[in-house]
Specification:
The protein is α/β, with parallel strands linked by helices and 344 residues long. It has 2 domains: 158 residues, Rossmann fold (3-Layer(aba) Sandwich); 162 residues, 2-Layer Sandwich (Dihydrodipicolinate Reductase, domain 2). It is built from 10 helices and 14 strands. The strands form 2 sheets. It has a 7-stranded parallel β-sheet, with helices on one face. Strands 9-10-8-11-14-13-12 form a 7-stranded mixed β-sheet. Helix 1 crosses helix 10. The relative contact order is 0.15.
Length: 344
């Protein structure tokens, strides 16, 4: 396919929307045709994001003002609830949604965890869960792709192959997760001020975080057994990046688990199992669409540690979204995503 793909980005004033625009600017086939953001409508992207000053971008408008007839793909970078409500009214373009609205297959589960009835339950059965490396065929033919959350992306890349092979007890998984402050969004919040976050690490969503049912849903599907995870995220003083340390119960050895991950991801462009003993770190993936994984033995017999690192805004969000769009339009999966990690 050689024609330009005209995209619209909804929620262009947020971190995920801005990172999607950043990646799209160097994509060989994407044309950024429309940008929308409710509170910032009428502004230029350069006014909202000064790093876009050198680039000619469309003005930011309200989504209701867009003409969808010339749009090939819509990226929904809106909060949950608002995303499905708007996308349900769009006919024609293919949809890559970065919100939580189409990730859970069950409308009742969505209502339980997100505190509101699902805005478009009739679309749930048509949405494909877009963990790219594990759903390529379905993504390629989908009209709606639900991009996984950032934490679930890191966790599921590490655990789905092991769960599918029946090597870990998906009913007894403990996850300690760390994320940069961009994961909390751009809205002004006292808890996210520099003086509150700097030189501090803070757990949140303790015992009940909205990514839990998403992780359990996919681990259950991979293993054929009911999954139950303990999941505790922590906010750490960095802008972007995400690291998960997962304790699993298993009858396999760490080298055996690692061999399964190596076989699963051999030849993958973006998911890499590190050499034995090498510890994943967010600095290995910052600004890139790459994920790094490794497995370590635990001191306690019958347990192992699986560790993964991604950039929460790229592989955990906008990069994976473009990776999915590439599949949907028959493009090389790596198009627009070949930048190496930024370090230092």
């Amino acid at each position: 396919m050689t024609d330009r793909i005209r995209i619209a980005v909804l929620g262009a004033s947020g971190y995920t929307g801005a990172d999607l625009v950043r990646l799209a600017l160097t994509h060989p086939t994407i044309e950024i045709a429309a940008l929308a953001a409710g509170a910032r409508a009428g502004q230029r992207m350069a006014d909202i994001w000064p790093h876009f000053a050198p680039y000619p971008l469309p003005p930011v408008v309200r989504a209701e003002e867009l003409d969808w007839s010339g749009i090939d793909a819509v990226f929904g970078c809106l909060p949950h609830g608002a995303s499905a409500e708007l996308l349900a009214r769009i006919e024609g373009p293919r949809v890559i949604d970065l919100s939580a609205d189409f990730r859970l297959r069950d409308a009742a589960s969505y209502a339980e965890w997100y505190g509101l009835p699902h805005p478009a339950p009739q679309l749930l059965a048509r949405a494909v869960y877009g963990l790219t490396e594990h759903a390529r065929d379905a993504i390629a033919n989908a009209r709606i792709v639900a991009c996984p959350g950032c934490y679930p992306t890191a966790v599921l890349l590490a655990l789905v192959p092991l769960a599918r092979a029946g090597l870990v007890d998906v009913g007894r998984v403990a996850i300690a997760a760390l994320s940069g402050v961009s994961g909390a969004g751009r809205a002004a919040k006292e808890a996210n001020l520099f003086c509150e976050v700097g030189e501090s690490a803070t757990p949140y969503g303790i015992g009940r975080h909205r990514h839990m049912p998403e992780i359990e849903q996919e681990l259950s599907a991979a293993s054929g057994r009911a999954a139950a995870v303990g999941f505790t995220p922590h906010l750490v003083p960095m802008s972007r990046g995400e690291l998960v340390t997962i304790t699993v119960e298993t009858r396999a050895t760490a080298p055996e688990l690692r061999a399964v991950l190596e076989a699963t991801y051999a030849g993958e462009a973006f998911v890499h199992v590190l050499p034995e003993g090498a510890v994943p770190s967010t600095r290995m993936v910052r600004g890139s669409n790459h994920a790094v994984l490794n497995v370590f033995p635990d001191r306690v017999a019958g347990r192992a540690l699986v560790i993964a690192a991604i950039d929460n805004l790229v592989k955990g969000s906008s990069g994976q979204a473009i990776q999915n769009m590439n599949l949907m339009f028959g493009l090389p999966e790596t198009a627009g995503l070949e930048a190496a990690a930024l370090f230092p």
